[in-house]
Specification:
- This is Methylthioribose-1-phosphate isomerase.
- The record marks 163 as: Transition state stabilizer.
- Belongs to the EIF-2B alpha/beta/delta subunits family. MtnA subfamily.
- By secondary structure, the protein is α/β, with parallel strands linked by helices.
- It contains 13 helices and 18 strands.
- The chain has helices at residues 40-48, 55-72, 76-87, 94-108, 115-152, 178-185, 202-214, 226-231, 257-267, 287-290, 299-302, 352-358, 360-363, and strands at 2-3, 6-7, 11-13, 20-23, 34-37, 157-161, 190-195, 218-221, 237-240, 244-246, 251-254, 271-274, 280-281, 303-307, 313-317, 330-333, 340-343, 346-348.
- It has a seven-stranded mixed sheet, with helices on both faces. It has a four-stranded mixed sheet with strand order 13-10-11-16, with helices on one face.
- The longest helix is centred in the middle third of the chain and has 38 residues, at 115-152.
- It is globular, with a radius of gyration of 20 Å.
- The model has no long low-confidence stretch (mean pLDDT 95).
């Protein structure tokens, strides 16, 4: 994607050929800053602090983090240690485990002297694969927006999204936003209702920022406004991403997604979830019972960051001092509330049979 006319991805090899550059997403939308990762510890910190976030990007960052670890020590023990440390950074997004397992499987068969070069090649394959995957998600999701436009007859297709599932959450293109970009670029009138997405405000800070940079019409709304908009016929479809999808079609996504799905069902608005195959956890059937939900700092709930009139960015308290808070980062939307899943292989029912039809080789294992 482009920022002020310059093409960017969210992660890339630095000019030295071994360290890794990322867009520091904790600085957006106020400041554009590229941060350099020169060690496994720096990569782990970037994932934990959400300098990088979004399931596909977390996986790619972890893969490069393993590369950085092996530059310092390519032994079997170091490989296992780095794998475990990176895996522990975020518990919910399954791409993290998927990418690290792919790296370990390939590198574990090689002698230590060959691991560094192979690690960088494998990490590059993972990153490039995510880009191609997201492009195909965009193509398949475009058909849904085209159908909504034909059914509507006139006016823009109004899409409601939650959190950020655009190119900032991936390596390029995005998942939920990829079909929107494809529709916009194809000349289909599309407008996006952007949930603010408390508590970290990824919608307000990131989705609004990247849609604006691409020229896609959008409007920021409070998280609690989505149901109202649906009731009044102002939403044609919902389109969100996911950090982990069970083999039965349950979806783990940013907290608040479940409430949007409930409102969509009541208002008879289609609710679609866009995801790469790497986000499917074939080992889990019951999302509510089996998917670990990350609990983040209560400060994210009791405080909020913003830019004051003097241009300074700061964090301010929004609750009385000492107020306890709970901060689950994700919730589970059951498959019964999902109209369909949009993947790189096509659109399918949110069910074990639907996913198995697109990924027979994965479901059989």
């Amino acid at each position: 994607m482009r920022v002020d006319g310059v093409p960017y991805r969210t992660i890339w090899l630095a000019e030295d050929g071994w360290s890794v550059d990322i867009i520091d997403q904790t600085r957006l939308p106020w400041e554009w800053r590229v941060a350099r990762l020169a060690s496994m510890e720096a990569a782990a910190e970037a994932i934990r602090s959400m300098r990088v976030r979004g399931a596909p990007l977390i996986g790619a960052t972890a893969a490069y983090g393993l590369c950085l670890a092996l530059r310092a020590d390519a032994s079997d023990a170091a490989l296992e240690r780095a794998h475990d440390q990176l895996l522990a950074t975020r518990p919910t997004a399954v791409n993290l485990r998927w990418a690290l397992e792919a790296m370990r499987e390939r590198l574990g068969r090689l002698p230590p002297a060959e691991r560094v070069e192979a690690a960088y090649a494998q990490a590059s394959e993972i990153a490039e694969g995510e880009v191609e995957t997201c492009r195909w998600i965009g193509d398949h999701g475009l058909a849904l927006i085209e159908a909504a436009h034909r059914a509507k007859g006139e006016g823009p297709v109004n899409v409601l999204t939650h959190c950020n599932a655009g190119w900032l959450a991936c390596v390029d293109w995005g998942t939920a936003l990829a079909p929107i970009y494809r529709a916009h670029d194809a000349g289909i009138p599309v407008h996006v209702w952007v949930d603010e997405t408390r508590p970290r405000n990824q919608g307000a800070a990131l989705t609004a920022w990247e849609l604006g940079r691409h020229g896609v019409p959008h409007t920021l709304v409070a998280d609690n406004a989505g149901g109202h908009l649906m009731q009044h016929g102002r939403v044609d479809l919902c389109l969100v991403g996911t950090d982990r999808t069970t083999r039965s079609g349950d979806v783990a996504n940013k907290i608040g997604t479940y409430l949007k799905a409930l409102a969509a069902r009541e208002a008879q608005v289609p609710f679609y979830v866009a995801l790469p195959g790497s986000t499917i956890d074939w080992t889990v059937a019951d999302g509510l019972a089996e998917v670990p939900i990350e609990e983040r700092s209560q400060v994210e709930v009791t405080h909020i960051s913003g830019r004051a009139r003097d241009g300074l960015v700061s964090s301010v308290a929004i609750a009385p001092e000492g107020t306890p808070a709970v901060n689950p980062a994700f919730d589970i939307t059951p498959a019964s509330l999902v109209t369909a899943l949009v993947t790189e292989r096509g659109v399918c029912a949110a069910s074990e049979a639907g996913l198995a039809g697109l990924y027979p080789e994965r479901s059989a294992s």
